[in-house]
Amino acid sequence: MRLLFIGDIVGSPGREIVTRGVAGLVLRHQLDLVIANAENSAGGSGLTPQIYRKLVKAGVDAITLGDHVYRRKEIYSVLDSSENIVRPANLPGEARGRRWAIVEARDGTQVGICCLLGQLFMKPIDNPWVAADRVLAELPTEVKVRFVDFHAEATSEAQVMGRYLDGRVSAVLGTHTHVPTADECILPEGTAFQCDVGMTGPHDGILGRRADRVMETMLTANPTQFDVATGDVRLNGAIVDVNPETGLATAIERLCVLEKELAELESLATNS
Amino acid sequence: MRLLFIGDIVGSPGREIVTRGVAGLVLRHQLDLVIANAENSAGGSGLTPQIYRKLVKAGVDAITLGDHVYRRKEIYSVLDSSENIVRPANLPGEARGRRWAIVEARDGTQVGICCLLGQLFMKPIDNPWVAADRVLAELPTEVKVRFVDFHAEATSEAQVMGRYLDGRVSAVLGTHTHVPTADECILPEGTAFQCDVGMTGPHDGILGRRADRVMETMLTANPTQFDVATGDVRLNGAIVDVNPETGLATAIERLCVLEKELAELESLATNS
Amino acid sequence: MRLLFIGDIVGSPGREIVTRGVAGLVLRHQLDLVIANAENSAGGSGLTPQIYRKLVKAGVDAITLGDHVYRRKEIYSVLDSSENIVRPANLPGEARGRRWAIVEARDGTQVGICCLLGQLFMKPIDNPWVAADRVLAELPTEVKVRFVDFHAEATSEAQVMGRYLDGRVSAVLGTHTHVPTADECILPEGTAFQCDVGMTGPHDGILGRRADRVMETMLTANPTQFDVATGDVRLNGAIVDVNPETGLATAIERLCVLEKELAELESLATNS
Amino acid sequence: MRLLFIGDIVGSPGREIVTRGVAGLVLRHQLDLVIANAENSAGGSGLTPQIYRKLVKAGVDAITLGDHVYRRKEIYSVLDSSENIVRPANLPGEARGRRWAIVEARDGTQVGICCLLGQLFMKPIDNPWVAADRVLAELPTEVKVRFVDFHAEATSEAQVMGRYLDGRVSAVLGTHTHVPTADECILPEGTAFQCDVGMTGPHDGILGRRADRVMETMLTANPTQFDVATGDVRLNGAIVDVNPETGLATAIERLCVLEKELAELESLATNS
Ligand SMILES: [Fe+2]
Ligand SMILES: [Fe+2]
Ligand SMILES: [Fe+2]
Ligand SMILES: [Fe+2]
Ligand SMILES: [Fe+2]
Ligand SMILES: [Fe+2]
Ligand SMILES: [Fe+2]
Ligand SMILES: [Fe+2]
């Protein structure tokens, strides 16, 4: 089976390229499942129930989150009741939302999904290795295809997570730095890996925010409003082929969709 | 003119692929200049005079460094006397070594070179924007081709440095995370940019170190010796085309050389 | 001459103990000058023109700030026009506000005042040692009494700043951790030193904020409003005796004023 | 019952003041138990079996450690076999050493002891609140006197730990910053608390290390050997009175012993 993972969706530009493009991408790449990290989809930070529903309606089958998981508290109701959205599994035990989800791909494969936060250069958070072990132990053994979004800052920690789960999950794909890394590979024991798949949204700014604002603050210490940027919108992600019998990956490919491809993707979806 | 920048050379595997491959790369890609970050070339951390000389003899025209600049104190003599090696320009004023260098490329172009350390998620260090401005002001105006190695952890800071220097230097290429990013581009005002060009050395470990050792420490808190790994050696870098009249970049391309290419590169160099 | 330095004033409880107590403290301790760090005085973060005026009216002669200097932008006008308030001297050059101030003590002594931010465990900021040297060079040589508020997180960095300025300034007193340290001393060359003088405000919470809120967020990752706490209000600071001829300190004493002392302090002020 | 907790013992000066002074302190203050943090006792970092035995012989009844717990691997054998020494309880599960110990005080009271590492501004580590809960659940209920050394950098986190365990343990006393805080108190539910009890060793340096060396590195980026300093040796700690029936504290007092008191303490011990 083949899945697409879409990196951090940032603001309305990010939402638009996803909602307009996903149906066409499913057809063009014969995708069985679409997973997306939506932690920045509401105005650049957090997620709302309305946006959650729009993304699902557009063809996103499952949603992961990151350090901004609770920035918009409206999302609590969705986290409590929906079965295709996960909060980071290594938040403290009492945190709202599910630590893992199982969704069915178009080809009938059951896919286990979770996300984890890194510890290095991030706010204090529970041990991600222990949390990963716990999720894997809790997932039913018949769920062989297992997807992990590792939302982390440091390349070292991402690589350790890849090695730690190598052979035990189908893919460990990173998010959070908002920049795609050119290191996609199948690790020795069969897990697809990439430090970061990059973000989905405007690329003419700083990590999706207006460059002038971020630069003013960095250069003068003057606080500014980090509004979401607008230009050069791209959808960044990775496509992974997984053997549903073994749960191991057979291929991984980076995906970068530009705005100008949208018309073609939309007509593809309309004419199908 | 065309230059190659080689990312963090790690240990003897990194040194070997550089010393064996550079001459062939110069021919294959018609390079006018080869710059390399050598901060990890001595046993994974620091640089020695002997290694410095080997790299220069192999065809590396200029050397940049990073946070591990002084890990091997033997290098002080080289830093004091050599004209093609720079220490980070935003170390404190009394730090050993030069803040910028000018080297002549094979086509006769004078190229100004410096490196800067990031502040985010790194040890306290002086303001890199101020240091960059100062280097640019000190470089003779006739030196139009100007190269900056931004040795930084955070993607946000790297992108700000790219924007800050856009149109004022030929290239801002990152090092330090040891993982190449897939974001190479020419910024709007003509500066070549990439968050990180990746590292040069063994890729079967964690950032070039033995995976078993790093993982044991990350998982058990037991300190271990982070020896340099050995397998899957690659040379990561970026090739930039610069208009010597304007100093602006016209093209940038990622480069990843595998061990198995060495034989061909060596025969190319021998037969030329 | 004798000066009192009051640590981070937090919210309305902090403002109240200062405005009600300072006049009495001046009498009780025969103070020639009162300096206060006011970075948290507006609702726990930042400073407003109105609060600035209230503090000055109550007898605060000079104000220092910290990392929250610009949290309330209304303060820009005061920073631009007032002569007894300083922003951290190692903010970037273009930052609003003055890097040092000179105020006249009740005994006629001119006192130079500045504050500096630490780098360790804090947001990236310019080199504080260089900034300190620059302020000292700019202050007129006849201004012998010189006061430095070092707003820093790490005890190591505070101790280094004390040693670095020992004999060159009258006092290096810390703020920012909101907890007074029991290490007040006169350093070998004559500078009064204390890692942190503590904060001024409610002490029944966490650094002045409501304990229940901070704990909920630390324990569950659920974001909460960190409102200023209300109980156990104290004024923390240090009293330093300085020889106005040499500018060196002769004594330092911790000061902790409790709410219950206010009535007595007020009647002292009224009856004088 | 009355216990003394001695803060981070640094190098041979720290060891000497402890080994020479403890017997006298036990007499002078009628101590039932002496606990010490020994994480810096071997040359400034780590602990060796020989030093462990010396401290125990001198009258230290129980030993806690910190982030430098494994700096000297020789200590593994002691951690594996001795019953009065604990490693931080929130290290990963496989870490060497015990998470809690029970020692008998001179008055017959059983005292449960553990230490925990903070997360803020420190290397990634497991959740300390969860680890604290687990230790408390594992300690036999009849062990009512319970001591926690919270080895942490940030004052906020220390205060949260105090509030979190208030009423559940006898004392939460901090270590790691090497500077005593002037905030010792009995929290509302009966737990003795102090952010940091300070360190035991030379006070003429930076956190116990030679000031010239630390300053050179901070000011010039030049790596130096941070040798242990030599002068102004002090023993810093806190004395806590605990009701053995309830396990709650009734008093806490800071203790600072100077070198010059040693002669008197030694004669007190000899003559008893
Ligand atoms: Fe994130
Ligand atoms: Fe994000
Ligand atoms: Fe580096
Ligand atoms: Fe490196
Ligand atoms: Fe502050
Ligand atoms: Fe503050
Ligand atoms: Fe420590
Ligand atoms: Fe320590």
From TrEMBL, chains A, B, C, D:
Fe cation 2 binds at E39, D67, H151, H176. InterPro entries: Metallo-depent_PP-like (IPR029052), YmdB-like (IPR005235). Keywords: Metal-binding. CDD domains: MPP_DR1281. Fe cation 1 binds at D8, E39, N40, H178. The keyword Nucleus does not apply. GO terms for molecular function: 2',3'-cyclic-nucleotide 3'-phosphodiesterase activity; metal ion binding. The active site is at H68. PANTHER family: 2',3'-CYCLIC-NUCLEOTIDE 2'-PHOSPHODIESTERASE. This is Calcineurin-like phosphoesterase. It comes from Bythopirellula polymerisocia.
